[in-house]
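re: ur question from yesterday

yeah so i grabbed the chain u mentioned. its 779 aa long if i counted rite. heres the sequnce exactly as i have it in my notes:
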Amino acid sequence: RINVGIRRRLAPLLDNNRRRIELLNCLLFSLPGTPILYYGDEIGMGDNYYLGDRDGVRTPMQWSPDRNAGFSEANPQRLYLPVIVDSEYHYSTVNVENQSRNLSSLFWFMRRTLGVRKQFQAFGRGAIEFLRSDNPSVLTFVRTFEEEAVLVVANLSRHGQAVTVQMPHYAGFRVVDIFSDNEFPSVTEAPYTLTMAPHSFYWFSLEKSAEPVISESDEAMHVHCSVAWSRVIGSPVEKQLLTVIRSYLSRARWFGGKARTIRRLEIADSMALPTGDGLVHMVRLAVHYAKGGRELYLLPLGFATGEEQAEVLRDHPQGVIAYLQTRDHEGILFDAVYHHHFHDALLDAVAQKRNRRLGDARLVGRRGAQFAQLAAAPGAQAQSAASGAQPASTGPADLTSRVLKVEQSNSSVLFGSSFFLKLYRRLEEGINPDVELSRGLTEQAGFDGIPAYAGALEWHGADQGVTTIGLLQQFVPNETDAWTWTLNNVERSFGDAQTHQQDTMPRLPASIYTVDPEALPDEVRDFIGTVYVEMVTKLGRRTAQMHRGLAALTESADQRPEPFSLLYQKSLHQGIRGAVLKTLDDLEGALGSLDEQTAAPVRSVLGKRRQILARLKRISDRKVSALKMRTHGDYHLGQVLSTGKDFVIIDFEGEPARSITERRLKQSALRDVAGMIRSFHYAAHGAIFLRAVKQGADADYLTGWADLWYRSVSGIFLHAYRAEAGTGRFIPADDEDFAILLETFLLEKAVYELAYEMNNRPDWLIIPARGLESLLADG
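ran it thru and got these structure tokens back, copy pasting raw so excuse formatting
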């Protein structure tokens, strides 16, 4: 008589085919119901069919390659059932200990998949909807629960397949791979097409677009006027235009006032810029807020009809502001940054050094010394040859342009493979430090670690005020920014750490100042990665070279370096001290709203108020021999591009929350160094929140490894920086002065991060709190 139940394990049933095992487990975890794993299936254990009944799957769990598979220390003959000794599934090969040391093993696949599944309630509690597709070999369905929607696509065939899925009710949704966070093309009204490897699967998170588009049926988004397009600004219809523009601002990525209540919106001034096919109204919007304050934003307004209208609606629906009917035509009002004729007009203004009066204002183009050389670069010539045109002698006006889809406060336009235009959206009167320093480093210092300066665009108002509205630079091909590249590296390092949970973690360096890259223990070098060690060394050198270049700027008094004075140091101390006290007071007031896990480290920081203030006071106790000079101002991993072999430093705007006047102040070079070191700390500990925990990793276990990574990498970076800086006067030669100055800025940066996280991401307060604790402990 045979008992009813499971008589075979999954791996033998599927001929030990890894792809098929993963596929069926994916279906088990994503279909409705409670998934149950039979012990041993998480490592692909075999069975002993010849034992009869269900005993074939009741063999001892294979924990290790030791005696009795680590299940028991008894005499093997005394076991109730024998261990598996089949050559394909032998316990000496298939066991938990072996697989836990191999991130590519089935054990780690199952652990990561279960960790990801726990992040979505839709899998456990959601409804299921099977989707129509054109391929019967591919199973497609959506699990939904409240705001969650997970698309599951599984190829049940042993061959590669293409599938077209019908899901029009998800049109406009973003498609994000749950395991990697990589974004796939968004869903449109058309069928969605995917290609699948044999026995493969996808889990996608379907997320509403952050950029909602307007609907043609929305009457509030229709504007009618009795004047021609060239005369709409200043006409009676302007009030209605401001209403639809206000709606557009609420969904524009670059608008920084979404969290504030707008009291009034007005057009401060405008200029009508002729383009290849018509006219663009460049307006400076004055945004007045309910609780006080006023900001200026640049918004180029375009009007499209016919084929051009269809093109904008198809390719850039997020840029549509309203449907507009003028005296002569019917079309759409849109953000002209999405129009190539507008791009060409701006590039032409730089190439021809134009100084054009457009109404009461003037558009002035500044051409850099390297413009012609960059225009004649192979990329520009290849682009001209491809279009059948002759290369322009004054500039690449014929280069194809496109808007880059990146999350940032400015708009970016790429011209072929030669030029990169940054159009500033939030405007302030004065020369933007991004333009000023890029030009100085390129043309005065000859620093090649940034995209070369090619030109700039300025708005000269009727009041003679000058505002920078654009920066043209060399386009530098790159793999990714250093932040993303570093997160990928930390993820690899953490994966390596998780395979060594039975081993003793290497000792932490005493401080970042004591790290010697040449004497780095082999196990630490392997943990970080040899390539990353080499690249972070190069980043340290590049940073010192940047500071040497900035220290060499002498064209104007605003740029020339000045020596530190004790009076300046006391002023610096008072400024930082005031900001620290305010942040600590605000934190104390918010303590009751934090969960205990976050509140504990914050409470510990608050208890060290006197220690923090005492450490800060050291900067005012004695004169430090160094220079205050122009600096990057907002230096971190996100401001560095990785080309694969080197780094390119970008974005010299400074901290966006500060005014242009503040951003142009002279500072210590070590403020930039502190920003990068804090960025390493964020990468190490942020990777736990962003990636590791999502995949089922033990956050407490990884915290120690994160500290090891941070201290070692920061020490390598700092060692390379000081070696390259040498005897440069922009940093203190005395080791104690160097440490005091750097620690002052590290404390300042960590407290600034506390304030930022308290207002934006309270769950992340634990990162700067731990960073502050670490800084105080090092002292």
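noticed a couple things. The first helix runs from residue 10 to 13. also The longest strand covers residues 262-275.
anyway ttyl
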